[in-house]
Design brief:
Layout: E1 9-13, H1 18-28, E2 32-37, E3 52-54, E4 61-63, H2 64-67, E5 73-78, H3 83-94, E6 98-101, H4 115-121, E7 126-131, H5 146-152, H6 177-200, E8 204-209, H7 210-216, H8 219-228, E9 245-249, E10 254-258, H9 262-271, H10 275-279, H11 286-291, H12 293-304, H13 309-316, E11 323-324, H14 329-334, H15 336-340, E12 344-348, E13 354-358, H16 382-388, H17 394-402, E14 406-407
Parallel strand pairs: 1-2, 1-6, 2-5, 6-7, 7-8
Antiparallel strand pairs: 3-4, 5-14, 9-10, 10-11, 12-13
Length: about 400
């Protein structure tokens, strides 16, 4: 055993990001993940570039997008529109512990690959469906994409500069956060279902929606509205419940000042040479600072312009006042902490090239993850999986390949 899930097999019928993010996390934890792809084209994101990483002979390339969400998996290229292809997937599902799919609601029923059909042959199967709006409700049949979900589920209403300010208006988050959060919630739900199966032997159907996940992830902003009846608005980099907790200009750039309590604010004021601010009843408590943010924020802004970003960090960090720079992504990977934790990785791809990756954030003391296996080439494992898992002969696999049912490298 190398990972905590190395005893499990996952049949991955998902593509793009939310589903693949979940199955990549399961693969990191040791699960055998069999990624089913369309012959010829594969996962949509294989073509989502540039940038691409090309092989030494120029005959192989993978998009950075695909590489970001598919490490540690086995690629099996099967045409599920054929009777033979559906039969192969049914047999793989029978021998799997988990199935993840992100087809439209009811999209797999016509192939006999829906939960009701597969649970009859594998009652212990944990079947996770990921859709934009879930299996029920008036929007169930709608397609759902991260960008539109960020808008519909409220995230963009609290992201970006305030209306009326320069650059004001709704902004999406710079990564597909609804997809990522849905992938992580799918992983959590699957682990919960596994715990239930260990006690009862029963599998179950998990209904996961991007819309539900993004609404749930509004966290304090959702409760700010439900508790007060007033919808939160965009505050730029400021925090709705804590002050000062935002980005400020410095003498040479910007600094995030993240004051989380009254003690931290008092220490900041002392180091800034303005101890009278923390003694002022208008600013002495967080509640007072929130009520008077429009008066306090300009004063803090003027103070922070007097030193460089690094000078402020050097002064504030020893005093345990949370702060930090706003890094570009190249600067992120140059941070000593990122290097010490090995966050940038390199893997050898089947196409003969070395591809980059980002390390899994999961750190186990007894069952370490394996995030060093490169994402697969399309159909790289078709032969080995069909032979080892289903026991098919070389002749049978070759016949399927000739008929266009499968594609193998």
């Amino acid at each position: 055993m190398t990972g905590p899930l190395s005893h499990l097999r996952v049949l991955d019928l998902s593509r793009v990001l939310a589903g693949p993010w979940a199955t990549q996390t399961l693969a990191d934890m040791g699960a055998e993940v069999i990624k089913i792809e369309r012959p010829g084209t594969g996962d949509d994101t294989r073509g989502w570039g540039p940038p691409y990483i090309e092989g030494p002979e120029g005959d192989t390339r993978e998009s950075a997008y695909f590489l970001s969400a598919n490490r540690g998996k086995k690629s099996v290229a099967v045409d599920i529109t054929t009777e033979e292809g559906r039969a192969l997937l049914t047999r793989l599902a029978e021998k799997s512990d988990i199935l993840v799919e992100n087809y439209k609601v009811g999209g797999l029923t016509k192939y006999g690959l829906d939960y009701d059909s597969l649970s009859k042959i594998n009652p212990g199967l944990i079947y996770c469906s990921i859709t934009g709006f879930g299996q029920t409700g008036p929007y169930a049949k709608r397609a759902g994409y991260d960008f539109m979900i960020q808008g519909m589920a409220g995230l963009m209403s609290v992201t970006g500069e305030a209306d009326g300010r320069p650059g004001g208006g709704p902004q999406k988050v710079g990564v597909a956060l609804a997809d990522i959060l849905t992938g992580l919630n799918a992983t959590v739900a699957i682990l919960g279902a596994l715990s239930h199966r260990e006690r009862t032997g029963e599998g179950q159907h998990i209904d996961l929606a991007l819309f539900d996940v993004q609404v749930a992830s509004l966290a304090n902003q959702a409760l700010n509205y439900l508790a007060s009846g007033t919808p939160p608005t965009r505050l730029g980099n400021a925090h709705p419940n804590i002050v000062p907790y935002q980005a400020f200009e410095t003498a040479d750039g910007h600094l995030i000042l993240a004051v989380g309590n009254d003690g931290q604010f008092a220490r900041f004021c002392e180091l800034a040479g303005r101890p009278e601010l923390s003694a002022d009843p208008a600013f002495a408590t967080n509640s007072a600072r929130v009520a008077n943010r429009e008066t306090l924020a300009p004063q803090v802004a003027e103070i922070l312009k007097t030193r460089t970003t690094r000078e402020w960090i050097a002064a504030l960090e020893p005093a345990a006042v949370p702060c930090g720079p706003i890094n570009t992504i190249d600067q992120v990977f140059e941070e000593p902490q990122a290097k010490a934790r090995g966050l940038a990785t390199r893997m050898t791809h089947a196409g003969g090239m070395e591809v980059p990756g980002v390390a899994s954030p999961l750190r186990f003391s007894r069952t370490p993850v394996d995030d060093t296996v490169a994402p697969p080439a399309l159909g790289q494992h078709t032969r080995s999986v069909l032979a080892e898992v289903l026991g098919l002969s070389d002749e049978t696999i070759a016949a399927h390949e000739k008929a266009g049912v499968v594609e193998a490298r």
